Amino acid sequence: MPQVRIVARNFMDMVAALPAAKLDKLYDSSFICEAVLRSLPPLAKKYVLQMLFLDSPLMAKSMEEWVLPDGLSKHKVAIDRLLQLRVFMEVNDRKKEPSYKMNQKFQSNMQKYLTTGGTVPREPMPLNAAVRLPSVGELETYAMEQWECFLLQLINSSQVDKSTSFSSSMMRAFQRGLLNSSRDNEAPRLTENGFQFLLMETNAQLWYIIREYISSAEERGMDPTDLISFLLELSFHTLGEAYSVNTLTEVQRLAIKDLADLGLVKYLQGRKEGLFMPTKLATNLSVSLSDASSRKEGFVVVETNFRMYAYSTSRLHCEILRLFSRIEYQLPNLIVGAITKESLYNAFENGITAEQIVSFLQQNAHPRVAEKMPSVPENVTDQIRLWEADRNRVEMTPSHLYEDFPSKDLFEACCDFARDYGCLLWQDTKKMRLIVKGELHQQMRDFLRGQR
Amino acid sequence: MASAPSKLYQDDVSLVVALLDTNPFFWAAASLPFSEFLHHVIPFINSLLLLNQLNRVVLIATGTSSCGYIFDSGDGNASGNSNAVCSEIIKKLEDFVGKDSKIGKGSNGDGTRPAISSLLSGSLSLALCYIQRIFRSGTRHPQPRILCLQGSPDGPEQYVAVMNSIFSAQRLMIPIDSCIVGAQHSAFLQQASYITGGVYLKPQQLDGLFQFLAAVFATDLHSRNFLRLPKPAGVDFRASCFCHKKTIDMGYVCSVCLSIFCKYHKKCSTCGSEFNQAAPDSTIPDQKH
Question: Chain A interface, mutation test: which of B42, B211, B226, B231, most A Cβ atoms within 10 Å?
Fold first, then answer.
């Protein structure tokens, strides 16, 4: 599903799209260098490591010799990415051969990291603060609750118990592209992109929302570069430690409240000052920058009789499963449903593809079945694909039928006319009948009138 | 030529178990001092941890009479200061070498000829057990590989144990990479890397060791399908005999269990099957020219 991947990776594209001066300034911070390095494709990471201690530029041709013929396309992708992010800079020597050199600041930061080790962006608060700090488990439940609440509000504002403090214009910005109101007095329906969004994994969804948040940051008076660097720094904080709000800049303080609503940090009131604690969603941010390698535990078991058992209590999961299956009943820890033809046709109408459904089921397979090969039974996956193909059996084109031609010459002339425009769909020479695409009808009438 | 089947991996999260040779007899006479060696290895470990947040590195020290775990990055102390990690590694190495030499002296009694080879079989077994534990911990685990930093010569008495470890690694599809920092090639590690599909390298310049490590051994298993990695010119397949632990080219092989002997025996010592054939006149058949 190429479209989904593009959405998830767009954050780094956004970083790459920053003007050169701002990008270079970003590389002053070694956390951003680390985060950018971790977001690169694996081959690019290797190249950075190899070039890290080389001072002189290396010719592009010699770099191509590092790869096997199979890997040339990946090599190109890696080099392009490195150039885009200005980690590698192109240097033209006298022979006009392109060669690459590493960005100075990036190189020195990474060399320092390797020889002296990484540091943390800010020191956590000492433990004698009067306020009771939530445990890691409590933080995780808090993060999940907040995130689900936000998502539920995103797709259906009427269903939530408590709403987040995002302004309605912010929510509308997030919903743009995901929801549309088909009719004024009806609740907005999810678009095709909206469905794809729901079936993505949490980190990808998070990055999508953050991307929208940053794009709209300029209107709200926040510098996107600062926001980007703050978010990347956030992923290097230690989970479960509290940090003082006083160490944040103005922009970051504004952002913290919004991030708390998304579930990335938990905002507490300490004795003298505000505290914030990053949750697992925040610390996993830089993990998910690159491709989707999901490390979450699954919860869905699909049986060969098309019944589905989802061990989850989350309403969000229920809504997602409702998209393509018929939910039969809900128990305290289990959602029971069945994948039926009607439910799948419903999903296909809404723009979800069979591949998305199958990969959602496979990625979220319960650990008990995940080890089995295949994790989702083949008869179920095949049937889903077949039902999708069913919809493609018949293709409809609006067209017109012409018959009762007075003479054969006229019939031939009409055929040629239609064929010249590429609109001839079918002809029967014996009975002199012709089917032409609907859009040519007006011109066909004029042509016939002209011929008579 | 990959002689081992390898799993297809989609991402580059790796678990590297590095076996460090700490044989004091070797390091006393080596061209590269041990402290310099560590100056190359520790940034290499940092670079592995840098490449991916989920990467894990485990250090195992190979002594002369024992092996021990030195460092495990997945230990629970999150990121933290690398300086502290570095000094912790050095301190643990010193403790280990001290304990190892005590064990060595103790078992040899009055100091008979000390072993000049390090206990490769022991550290390979430790590494394989650790990896097996990771495999059993769940479906989502990093891709494991073993990296041997070896300097001491091979001890033929460990032939059987090392070959058993190599075959276990082959069955678990764990590549064994070898980086030789000593003067001579190691037949065991050549065979290990060949059979398991790993990389064998003897760097020509030891002061550039970090660059060799970063360029070759930091490659994750997924990228290995696309990168050109050093291939050995030839593999030394010599075996050692089971009775005297000598390295031999020609010998007698039991047809039941394939154990190798240098001299004629009436009965196989491994499987107990009896050899009915009459003894030959001389020791080894002479070459016909």
Answer: B226
